Amino acid sequence: MITIQPEDFINSVAEGLQLISYAHPLDFITAMARAYEKEQNPAAKDAMAQILLNSRIAAMGRRPICQDTGIVTVFLKVGMQCHFDTGLSLQELVDAGVRQAWLNPKNPLRASVLTDPAGGRKNTGDNTPSVIYTELVPGSSIDIRIAAKGGGSENKSKFVTLNPGDSIVDWVLAMLPAMGAGWCPPGILGIGIGGTVDKAMVLAKESLMEPIDIQELMERGPASRIEELRLEIYEAVNNLGIGAQGLGGLTTVLDVKIMDCPTHAASLPVAMIPNCAATRHIHFTLDGSGPVHFEPPRLEDWPQIQWEMGPGMKRVQLDGITRAEITSWRAGETLLLNGVILTGRDAAHGRIQKLLAQGQPLPEGVDLHGKFIYYVGPVDPVGDEVVGPAGPTTATRMDKYTEMMLSRTGLFGMIGKSERGDATIASIKEHGAVYLMAVGGAACLVSKAIKKSRVLAFADLGMEAIYEFVVEDMPVTVAVDSRGDSVHKSGPAFWQQKIRESR
After folding, report:
1. Is the peptide bond before 262 cis (omega within 30 degrees of 0)?
2. Collapsing DSSP states into helix, strand and coil, what is residue 33?
3. Which terminus of the chain is more solvent-facing, meaning fewer CB atoms within 10 Å of its CB: N or C?
4. Chain segment 398-443, per-residue pLDDT in tens
């Protein structure tokens, strides 16, 4: 029998969460650098360069890789010979570690967890509660695996109950294009097969805790049907040509992980959960000897990739911009934005909708006419930061508000990540507006372009408030131009054909 002290458990969880907030696992960096080197699409290669540079900046400054610092999921295997010297539950112990990590004054993390999800959706303020899966096992230690999962990738999770003779590969290939780019590819696909509906989903999530090893598997060859399936899905998905950020290219997934378990004879439950470019997980063991101390990353482990403003980039001034200038931009162009932009996410759009429906004016200082709105929920700043990491959130969630915003507020354009739906593209074309894409997973890099920040309205919403940013040379890609051309449609189609022709 060993005794686990509560402070050792809590401190280890907190320190682990702090580490993964700013330091990618080395296997991810290696895999992303390999994908960068072989990529042929300049737009996708540029996106991966930003992701790798952002990763190094985050590790150097010990600030979050992504502004969405995730919801915490924990897998605990508790040895039955362990004793906890506390009256707290496992949920309370884990949540104490989460709270400590999120409220760390040196690196505060963004609180994204809301209570009353179907009602008031009030932020808990400290990112608790976490989601915990516990298993009692023989032994006298505790195996702890922790992930911090962002909403953009979590929202793209899929489940199906196939017939026993159906093809899992065919189902995955049908789902991937429908998932869009909101999960910030290239990332990792976690797949759970078997069990029951709930078990398959847990298996998919748990599989994402494993290190990236697809290249090693390719070199030695598969030794089981599951390993064969991993290789089949990996090749088939990358042949889709979706590419980094959905821009088209050679690499859509860096690895495919699969876990399975026995299931009913009439069933073939299959779950799929993607991990985004902000892959955050850690694995450690407590054995009663004290807390775990983690080694900080070595900066020499990061590739020395430079992202530079090339001659093809167009520097634009947003203050006083005209509709005529916007209509001259073409899908696929890279712009460097300068001037004032406003921010707004789901909650802010909902409040604007309610005000307009009631015939009420927008809050004082909020004038969207001729402006661009950035879909972002930044991390709180520390020290001399103007703003914390401030990468884009998934734009498709704002599709239902776009016609209202373009027709009733005078908005000229929007900035976010991932694709827009067909109805939104039609609205953008009708109003002569534009949608610009910033790279998801490059939150620290984007924040360096923000020179001033202040809250304009809805301060009670926290990170979902409306901010005013003054930006200098903020890099974006024209994702949907005023003619309705979309790079998220043309890019993958072109590269899928190119990959097919090269076989």
Report:
1. no
2. helix
3. C
4. 999 999 999 999 999 999 999 999 999 999 999 999 999 999 989 9
Tell me the pLDDT band of 149, cut-offs 50, 70 and 90. Answer: very high
Q: What top-level class would CATH report for the domain 314-491?
A: alpha beta
For 341, phi then psi, to 5°, come to: -130, 150
Cis, peptide link before residue 129, omega less than 30° from 0: yes
Q: What are phi and psi of 76, to 5 degrees?
A: -115, 130
Angle between helices 422-431 and 399-408 (to 10 degrees): 10
- Give dist(CA 172, CA 174) in Å, integer: 5
What lies within 8 Å, CB to CB, of 76 at 6+ separation is 90, 94, 132, 133, 134, 135, 142, 143, 144
Q: What is the DSSP letter of 489?
A: H
pTM (predicted TM-score):
0.93
- Beta strand 268-275 with 253-263 is unpaired
Per-domain residue ranges for the chain? Answer: 2-286, 314-491
Residues 6 or more apart whose CB falls under 8 angstroms from that of 462 comprise: 111, 123
Length of the chain: 503
CA distance 12 to 432: 53
Residue type, 26: L
Coil, strand, or helix at residue 336? strand
Q: Residues 380, 417: contact at Cβ < 8 Å?
A: no
Q: How far apart are CA 278 and CA 302, in angstroms?
A: 15
Tokens (6 digits) for 329: 């931009």
**C-beta of residue 69 within 8 angstroms of C-beta of residue 148:** yes
